[in-house]
Amino acid sequence: MVMLYTPGPNNSMLAVSGANFGLQRTIPHLLGVSLGFGFMVFLVGLGAGQIMQTSPIVQRIMRLGGILFILWFAWKIASVPANKPGEDVNISSKAEKRNKPLTFIQATLFQWINGKAWMITASMEYPHRRYNPLTGEWVLVSPHRTKRPWQGKLEKPSAEKKPEFDAGCYLCPGNLRAGGKQNPPYAGIYIFENDFAALLKDLPEEDTPRSELFNALPVKGECRVICFSPKHNLTLPLMSLSEIGGVITAWQQQTAELSSRYKYVQVFENKGEMMGCSNPHPHGQIWAGDFIPTLVAQEDKMQREYFTRHSRPLLKDYAEQESAHGIRTVAENESWLAVVPYWAVWPYELLLLPKRHVPALPSLTPVESTHLAEVLKNILTRYDNLIQLSYPYSMGWHQALSGAEAYSGLHVHFYPPLLRSAEVKKFMVGYEMLAESQRDISPETAADTLRALSSVHYTGIA
Ligand SMILES: [Zn+2]
Ligand SMILES: [Zn+2]
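That's the Galactose-1-phosphate uridylyltransferase sequence above. Prediction below.
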C-alpha cells in the first residue's frame, strides 16, 4: 500500500519496515513521517522554501545529509539476515536487536534531510504546471500570487430570505411556465421537458454542410428539467438525506431511460446567478443526445488509453492514491471520496468519486446511493459555510459510454466560480482564454480550507 506513490525514501523505508517488522511496529515510523513532513510544509509556508532554493550552503548540507542517510539506510536493508531453509520466517531475536524499526523521533528527523520531501513541499510555493490525466490538459499553478490585493469589481451577493412558495416562479408547483404550460401541484420531485430545449427529438431531413472547413452534423436529443423539491427556498445541502436520496434515484432512472435511446446522457446543475442560473428554485437539468460531446469524448479517450497501459481504471487508481494520501481530501466515507483534484482549475473545484469502479449512476448499490446522499450533503454544506451564503457552482456527472464500462468511471465535477470571497469571482480571461488555465491558491490549500469548515450548515436549518 505505501508504495502506491512515487518510490521516494519515505515510502521505500515504510515498505521495508512494514515487511520486516509488521504494520504495528511501523506505526511510530509512520507517525514520525507525518509529523516531520507536516512541520516542514508549515515552515515552507513561512518562507523556508525560499531560503532552500537560494542558499547554496543549505543545499550542500542537505545533499550531504541525504547521502549519509541513504548509505545508512542501504546498510540497514543489506544487514537484514536472509532466512535459512527451515528457519522460522520471523527475524531471530539476535538480528532483531540490531534491526529495529525506525522510531518516531528518527522518522521525524529524517524529514529534515529527505531531499524529496523538501522538493515536494517547496514546489507547492512556486509556479508550476500540473497535468490533468482525465483531459490531457495542463494547468498553470501560481500559489505565490495569492498575496496580491484584489482591485477588481465587487459583485454584491443576494442575501435576501426567499419564501417557500413564489407565485412568480415558473418552477413552483401549480404555476404557469414561460412556455404557457402549467406545473402540476407536485409534492416531491418533478421532471418535465424543457420548454426551450437546446436539443430536439424530431428534425426535418435536411442536408448540413460537409467540407473540411465548413463541417456540421445534424443532432437529435432531449432536454429535461428536474425540480429537486416543491419548496422554492431549498437547495441540495438544506434538504434531508432522504430527499437527496430521492434526487439520486431520479438521476439514476433518467440515465437508465435516456441512455437506452441516446449515446450520452448529461446530468447537471447550474446553481446561482453567478453561473447564469436565472431561477433560484432548486433544480437541475438532463440533456441526452445522439452524439458524444467533446469533453466526454476526451475523458473517454484518456481513460481508455490508461486502461490499455495498466489494465486498471484510471479513476479507481486515482481515488486509491488520493485516499491514501489525504492531502487533498475534503470528505470521505465508506463508498465515496471528495477531493480538490490535483489538477483543479477552479479555486475550490471538487471531484467526487466512488471508491469502487462504477461505470454509471444506475450501477450504484443502494448502500452506495445512501452514502452518496451523505457525502453530497457534507460537501455542499461546506461550500455554503465557506461564504455563509448559498454557494454558486456548476456540477455534473460523467458516466461511461456504452461499451466503455470496464475502464470509464462514474464521477461528478463541481466547478464553483468564486475566488477569495462571496464577492470575488474568478474570471477565465486573458492568459486562460488564450494560452492555458491558471490558478493561484494551490489545490492543497483549498482542500485544507474546505476540510476545516463545519459539516453542519451555518444557518442551523439542516
Ligand atoms: Zn419556485
Ligand atoms: Zn469528468
